[in-house]
Structure formats: structure tokens, C-alpha cells
Write a structure and sequence with these properties.
about 80% helix; 5 helices; elongated; about 0% strand; Four Helix Bundle (Hemerythrin (Met), subunit A); mainly alpha
């Protein structure tokens, strides 16, 4: 049965959830990378030898976009949308949409703050290149919450898949 829920089919809701995860995670990553890269570029302009030590700080916010992408793919695979074997009730699709929200919103916000943290940590590398490993710790702390949101989203989707598929 594919009845509608608030005017959308179950597949519509599931696709909207997966799209939100991919889009918001990607937006956050783009903003976070831009913030960190602006500072890193300035440092590299002065000392090109530090590029390799600074690159991870600029790249770290990209993981949130990856987590959103993974979540969107899991929606397609777990709920049969990818292979066309779809029979989601509206209410079930809405639950899939809700399951995507932790990774969507947390990755949007955490990527931005990870970019800010990476930009600040780049100052450590600018002054003391040998402390680049220490500088990675600060943006990695922000990463923890993005990873937790991915885990929550995946567990919620697995529980929905087991209950309704």
C-alpha cells in the first residue's frame, strides 16, 4: 500500500529525507571547507612548505558531506527505491524522512564549526609546524558529533527497514 501522508507518498517522503541529508551535509561541507581554506591559503602563501600539514585541516569538513551522501544512498538501498521495488506507506516514508534528520542538520552545522575550528587550528601550524598533529585534535572533536549523527540515522533506518520491509 502506498497511501499518502500529508499529501506525499512514502517514496516521496523517503526521497525528501535522503535529499535533505545529502544537500544539508554538502552545504555544510562547502561552507566549512571555504572557512578553513581561506586561512590555510594565507598561511601557504607565506610558507608553501606547510601545505601538506595544513591540507587535512581544510579537508576535514568534507566528511559531513560524505555522511549525508551515505545516508541518501542508504535510503535508496534499504527501502527498495534504487531497484524500483517500492511499496512504502506514507507514514513509513515520513519515518524515513525523520530518520534522516539527525545527519542532515548536525552535519550542516558541524561542518561549518569544524571549518572554523580548522581555521583556528591552522594558526598552530603557522607558528609551530611540528605541532600539526596537535592541531588536528580540535576539529576532530567536532567530527565526533557528525559521526554520532550518522550512527543514529543508520540505526534508525535499520530499525525501520526491519520493522516495515
Amino acid at each position: 500500500m502506498t497511501d499518502a501522508f500529508w499529501g506525499l507518498s512514502g517514496v516521496d517522503w523517503a526521497l525528501l529525507g535522503g535529499a535533505a541529508a545529502a544537500i544539508l551535509g554538502g552545504i555544510g561541507s562547502a561552507i566549512g571547507i571555504t572557512i578553513a581554506s581561506a586561512v590555510v591559503s594565507g598561511i601557504v602563501t607565506e610558507d608553501g612548505e606547510k601545505f601538506g600539514k595544513l591540507l587535512p585541516l581544510a579537508a576535514m569538513p568534507s566528511t559531513q558531506g560524505i555522511y549525508g551522501f551515505i545516508s541518501a544512498i542508504l535510503v535508496l538501498v534499504f527501502f527498495g527505491i534504487f531497484n524500483g521495488d517500492v511499496s512504502l506507506e506514507g507514514a513509513v516514508g515520513f519515518k524515513v524522512f525523520l530518520a534522516c534528520q539527525p545527519v542532515a542538520w548536525l552535519c550542516l552545522v558541524s561542518a561549518i564549526y569544524q571549518g572554523k575550528t580548522g581555521a583556528s587550528a591552522a594558526g598552530i601550524v603557522a607558528r609551530r609546524g611540528e605541532d600539526s598533529g596537535k592541531a588536528l585534535i580540535f576539529p576532530a572533536l567536532v567530527e565526533t558529533y557528525a559521526v554520532l549523527s550518522l550512527i543514529v540515522t543508520v540505526l534508525m533506518m535499520l530499525s525501520l527497514q526491519g520493522a516495515y520491509m
